[in-house]
Design a protein that fits this description.
heterodimer, A: 828 residues, alpha+beta, six-stranded mixed β-barrel, 22 strands, B: 241 residues, alpha/beta, Rossmann fold, four-stranded antiparallel beta sheet, 8 helices, globular
Chain lengths: 828, 241
Amino acid sequence: MAASQKLHSVGRDWRERDVRVVLAALMIAVATVATIALFASQLQRTLVTSASTFLAADRQLDVENGRPIPHSWLEEAHSRGLRTGQMVEFSTMVFGGDRFQLVSVKAVSDEYPLRGDLEIQTREGGPRETVRSGPPPGEVWINPRLLRLLGLTLGDTLEVGNETLRVSALLLREPDGGFSMSALAPRVMMHKNDVAATGVIQTGSRVEYVYLFAGDTAALESFGAWLKPQLEPSHEWRSVRDGETLSRSLQRAERFLLLGGSLAVLLAAVAVAVASRQYAMSQRDTVALLKTLGLSGPGIARLYLRRLAIWGIVGIVGGLAIAIPLFWILASMLGNLLDRPVELYFDPNAVFPALATAVVSLFAFAYPPIRRLRHVPAMRVLRSQPTGEHKELWRDGVLALVAIFGLVWLYARELDLVVALLGSVVLLLLVLGLVGGVLIAGLRQIRGGGNAWRLALVGLYRHRGASLSQMAVFGMTIMLAATLLLVRTSLLDDWKAQLPEKAPNHFLINIAPDAKDDVAAFWRERGHPLEHLYPMVRGRLTELNGTPVKEAIGNDKNIGALNRELNLTWMDSLPDDNKIVKGEWFTPGTVSGVSVEAELAERLGLKLGDRLTFTVGSETVTEPVTSFRTVQWDSMKPNFYMAFPPGGGLDGLPATWITSFYLPPDQKTDLNAFTRQFPTISVLEIDHIIARIQEIIRQVTLAIETILGMILAAALVVMAAVVSATLRDRQREGALLRTLGGRQSLLVRSTMLEFGVLGGFAGIVGVLAAEAAVYALQYRMFEGSFSWHWSVIVPVPLASALLVSLLGRWQLGPVLSVSPMLLLRRLE
Amino acid sequence: MNQMTNPNADHHTPMLRVTGLSHRVPLETDTLTILQGVNLEINRGESVAIVGRSGSGKTTLLGLLAGLDTPSEGSVELDGAMISQLSEDKRAELRASRVGFVFQSFQLLPALSALENVMLPLELAGMDNPDRRARELLERVGLGERLNHTPRQLSGGEQQRVAIARAFACEPVVLFADEPTGNLDNRTGQAVSDLLMALNREQGTTLVMVTHDEHLAARCARQLHIEAGQLSEPTAEESVS
């Protein structure tokens, strides 16, 4: 009975226009925030899965120079529904024919790889085959260079320690091969079960055990949480985000989703705020009437609270009814784009911000004005505006900002983001309030109309209250949409610059000095000129200011770069994507000094002028640090921790050369000829890594465009809601103006101009505030550099002017089509 | 503005001439006839009251006379212009220059001050210094001290005085009043109708008023009765009684 009554009262409310606007705003708010949050959560998982092939798994547990992990850990993983696999990596000498060679062995279990695939050739010069597992016991797959170094052919045997294994295929690519130039020794891949028989692993051998895990995200996370307290210092629990190659791109994509979601929260809150405030204002007369009918103040409060609660529920249910199917559609679009099924992931947590946004903004904006009305005597409500409104408007404004940014904080939990957005919004409101207020007050001087421009400007002044508040909402909406547009543009530009269409996708390592020219000629003839050639000297950093380096920086620090040989180089000019952050790059003619990669320098605690000693073979080189520079590790170009000037510390030391170049997929067979002609040169194929990164960037781009589209749609709805808030007054005014003799064309032109000026001004201030927000966000969140975005600054205000003037034209609609007499009666 | 009367219209032609006027509104299944075969002439400077019960069609007639709507049949000639045949924009031009309105529900714009409300038609007509003329009129109707008050801050009688000031702003040749005292108490209604009559006399305007108030109607030189969409003019004896 009570339920049917409530339903009936919702039905009755629905007939009120203002209520419909509130409910529509609520539904849109819930739908936008929930869809973006759900999609962001889905995308994050898809991205991580897609990137997981770089680990050959979803997670890795690396154990460096330690013991294998207890078997019970793997059982625990299995009990949680995870799949596992194992690898053992070590270096050893192998014998083949009558020659021997130092190799890097990777012994894998049957399950390897859990994610991604391998590429092999079972016949020299034959087709490339893609396989989903490593070699069976008794066989090895080896790098083509090793085959030549040892003078073997496929089918021959290779001795690894005490075990003799048959070379059954050439290993061209492994999913987790990564992009590490330190793996200079040729690769041998064997089965893990053969390792014991080789007898190579003794106590104290340098061995890395790697455990692979794959499964659904929740299980991985719960297993990770179970595992972490038990990890030892030599253990490292890795996800793809911990890798260098992709982490930055992924992080930035995630940041963008977070920003998009936060902006959706903001916009949704504004939409509900505008609509519910308008509703509250429209209730003055009703409240007065209820009071004259004898309803008490608390009774009125209860009545409206109950109504708001019912609308909240209706809005949330309606919004979710839109969001969930929309999310499924977007998620399956993602699957289509990736050309493989996507594991749909419905994250219930993603829905909460939407609910909080709806409920908080509904009550924070609709309730205060209604609550105030109950204190006003019925006559006063009927007769004139309550006094002291201004003071309370301020209070409402502050409450609104606190409520909205509380919501953004709840959603994003990123202080930088909240501060940047809040700062820009406050700045925007101040500028709009002050400049807009002064400009509008200046219009007071304009008296008399006649032409559309004068009437438009007079109209702006006449509606100054509404004009200013509409300007504030338009400005804010445009700011939010433009912020996202700007960040998207600069992110996509950055990515495009980072990985251009024909980015180098093959590395040549170990080029002897006298082969340099021949190698360059080989590829030039085939139409694939080499990028820059860099010399490379292998050396170990041994001393810092004359003290052994581990001692100097503290033995407790475990810095990988100190445990292995580094690639040292010399170069005359700074690579384009490197930046000096401290000190100075070598001036021409300088032969002393070393430039150190900035992050390593920070971890080692280096200062400019510190003296570094390197051991290269039997030689030592000592040079002062003259600069720190940043390096784009994900640039897929040769990058170096340490750079010397030409003729400097590395002069005369044995060097090989490294270079990279672009090889189209259909010309990969050229590699066969190359390896035959230059057997000692290693070819590192990273075309699959690049293709995968490009795929990820495509996914992220799709996500970004989708979210941008949704935000723009939500922005449009907010603007329409704002305009419709004054619809009734405007239509009445239009009808009256027509009655008083205003021509239709004059009315249309002056209204469109009035709204156009309003939209244009809001657009200018909005886009400038967006630049301010991006300026703040760019450094802290996206690590990009700031520049003015003229391609956005110019068109946005124009588009905004056009859009708002069309909205103005739209609200005038019935005024033009119906006789003014009828309209005046209808609106009475 | 009086000089702006139609050059084709001399002082002997009537201000308003209505011939065979009918108005019908289509309903879902049927057609509702609101006015039927109305013929009428109103001379310059004349004051005419159209009296009738609610729903008798008097407001519709007023709207058609003023060119706010177009009739289903028949013609309306206002100050020499055949308004029933003019385009909407031409009718608007005519209203701007020659017609004033006073409504029962005042029809003031709530966001505008009294002064701005009165300035509205002056601005539309492209007049210079519209605020000077508006001020004068508001002083004339006794609201010189309340120029900047919005309608919400004014009483009903005051609002109607603002509306009257607005109606006379462009010095119309004909003023249409739709139940001008309908929303007011007796005393206020009396004061407002005094003001309306006085301004009408001062400006020599033709007044066409729709009302169901017999006393107000009696203040007009001529009374017409409307019932079920048909207009009748009582004989001299009837109108005195």
